[in-house]
């Protein structure tokens, strides 16, 4: 049996913790609960800069008091019931690949690791729908589907790092082929979730209906603040018969944005459009080896031979009309084959570098202004620190696109308080510039702890009051992942 809770001195609080620990151990089994400080740290860390910086400085992140690994929905239901009774915070955790501090346990409590709930429950090959437990990692699911010539076409950069189906939905994520196959919000048909004080909710079997407010989409993007997703039914697609790659160079990013707009408003459906600004293009040029001047765009179309032949021709015509020069297939092919390489451990940016991906999304009309304003804001406001800004666009909608832009400062101040303050200040500037020019707080990484302070501004006081009222109705004690998505601490809690 793992060690029980360390009790430094006998007090009401430590007695209560021991009591709750034993109640939870009776539900999940003693081998699936821990209060070991090192394991609790591992349950709290994610891939946010804050988390990575604190590891670099050998400082602790805010961690839970205990972590449980349930094996079934019934066990999750009991955990939520116990936490609701004692008004103890619950912090769901999938693969811990989030970048927004969503798994940091700001108010302690119980970390709920979904890693044991990783079964494939049903593959409906007639409707092309798979139902799984929420803790399954993308590649594990994909391996089984590929054997049947199917795919759950959600391939985020964190694909090989352990991201789970529950995490895709909870953070409203997207993958590299999302322009054609949709984001998690478009792929999910149904979920099962457990909400306080221990209710098991199943949304409707199909996502399109005319039955009033949509329970399913209220859970999507809720980042564990409303309930714990235990199962999900996701749309599948046939593995494409063929893929064709195209690449183009443009004089500048704005000509490339116009080409992307033309592709989308003509309702073509490439699986991938990736457009890199000058800074990112230079980085990519070394990798793909194709010489070009200006900015690079990579396109991938997939499906039947007939469809891809048609789309490749039509996209080439539109890109050349927008001023693009066709560079042939190899840059796209090389990128596709190495697409997870930049995300491999050891290759990712890491402290003492200060960095952040400040992705946003807006209508085509507003995108050029946001790009210009953000680049200027980073490079001028933080000039004294040598700040750099790069950007690419990797998901295109019928009406607009997103900016996946990053800031970098080579050397964080040595004092942790100063470093964290500088990091937050750059986010303040970037996020507010986005909001002021028609953008939103985030496109696909979620909000977590890092961006919670902007959600109130995004919705305004009246909009926020409604969002908060919804949260209060679902989670009256505020125990679900408190401090995230702009929500405050748990209420009525003596924890
Ligand atoms: C290198 C790198 C590249 C990335 N690239 C992408 C990308 O291309 N696209 C993209 O969308 N994201 C990307 N991400 C971000 C991240 O991987 C995604 O948000 C992913 O979907 C998170 O899944 P996870 O299982 O790791 O969730 P976690 O990190 O464990 O959790 C994220 C949030 O969701 C909540 N949560 C997790 N599981 C559940 C559940 N079952 N029920 C309720 N709440 C839950 C957590 O409480 C937390 O708030 C990247 C991250 C890294 C580090």
Task: Explain the overall architecture.
37% of the residues lie in helices and 19% in strands. The strands form 4 sheets. Strands 12, 13, 14, 15, 16, 17, 18 and 19 form an 8-stranded antiparallel beta sheet that branches. Strands 5-6-10-8-9 form a 5-stranded antiparallel beta sheet. A 4-stranded mixed beta sheet has the order 1-2-4-3, sandwiched between helices. The chain has 16 helices and 19 strands. The mean pLDDT is 95. Among the domains are: 119 residues, Uridine Diphospho-n-acetylenolpyruvylglucosamine Reductase, domain 3 (2-Layer Sandwich), CATH 3.30.465.10; 101 residues, 2-Layer Sandwich (Alpha-Beta Plaits), CATH 3.30.70; 88 residues, GMP Synthetase, Chain A, domain 3 (2-Layer Sandwich), CATH 3.30.300. The chain is globular. It is of the alpha+beta class. A hairpin with a 4-residue loop joins strand 5 and strand 6. The chain binds flavin-adenine dinucleotide. Flavin-adenine dinucleotide binds next to strand 3, helix 6 and strand 10.
């Amino acid at each position: 049996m793992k060690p029980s809770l360390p009790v430094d001195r006998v007090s009401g609080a430590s007695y209560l913790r021991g009591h709750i620990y034993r109640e939870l151990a009776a539900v999940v089994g003693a081998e699936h609960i821990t209060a070991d400080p090192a394991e609790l740290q591992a349950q709290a860390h994610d891939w946010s800069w804050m988390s990575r910086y604190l590891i670099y400085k050998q400082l602790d992140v805010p961690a839970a008091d205990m972590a449980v690994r349930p094996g079934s929905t019934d066990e999750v239901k009991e955990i939520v019931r116990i936490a609701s009774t004692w008004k103890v915070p619950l912090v769901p955790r999938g693969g811990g690949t989030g970048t927004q501090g969503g798994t940091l346990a700001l108010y302690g409590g119980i970390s709920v690791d979904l890693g044991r709930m990783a079964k494939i429950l049903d593959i409906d090959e007639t409707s092309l729908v798979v139902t799984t437990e929420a803790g399954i990692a993308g590649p594990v699911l994909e391996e089984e589907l590929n054997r049947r010539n199917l795919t759950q076409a959600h391939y985020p950069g964190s694909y090989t790092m352990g991201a789970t189906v529950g995490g895709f939905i909870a953070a409203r994520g997207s993958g590299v082929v999302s322009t054609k196959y949709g984001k998690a919000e478009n792929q999910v048909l149904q979920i099962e979730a457990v909400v306080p004080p221990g209710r098991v909710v199943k949304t409707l079997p199909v996502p399109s209906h005319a039955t009033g407010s949509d329970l399913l989409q209220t859970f999507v993007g809720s980042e564990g603040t409303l309930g714990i997703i235990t199962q999900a039914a996701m749309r599948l697609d046939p593995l494409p018969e063929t893929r064709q790659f195209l690449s183009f160079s443009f004089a500048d990013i704005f000509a490339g944005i116009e080409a992307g707009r033309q592709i989308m408003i003509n309702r073509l459906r490439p699986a991938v459009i990736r457009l890199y600004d000058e800074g990112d293009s230079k980085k990519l040029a070394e990798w793909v080896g194709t010489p070009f001047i200006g900015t690079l765009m990579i396109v991938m179309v997939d499906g039947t031979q007939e469809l891809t032949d048609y789309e490749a021709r039509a996209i080439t015509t539109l890109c050349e009309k927008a001023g693009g020069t066709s560079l042939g297939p190899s840059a796209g092919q090389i990128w596709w084959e190495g697409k997870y390489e930049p995300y491999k451990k050891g290759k990712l940016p890491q402290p003492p570098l200060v960095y952040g991906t400040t992705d946003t999304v807006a209508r085509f009309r507003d995108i050029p202004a946001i790009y210009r304003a953000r680049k200027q804001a980073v490079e001028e406001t933080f000039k004294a620190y040598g700040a750099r800004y790069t950007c690419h666009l990797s998901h295109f909608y019928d009406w607009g696109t997103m900016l996946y832009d990053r800031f970098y400062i080579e050397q964080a101040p040595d004092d942790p308080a100063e470093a964290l303050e500088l990091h937050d200040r750059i986010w303040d500037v970037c996020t507010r510039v986005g909001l002021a020019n028609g953008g939103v707080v985030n496109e696909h990484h979620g909000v977590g702890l890092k961006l919670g302070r902007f959600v109130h501004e995004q919705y305004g006081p009246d909009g926020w009051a409604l969002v908060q009222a919804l949260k209060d109705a679902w989670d009256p004690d505020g125990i679900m992942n408190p401090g995230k998505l702009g929500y405050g601490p748990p209420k009525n809690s003596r924890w």
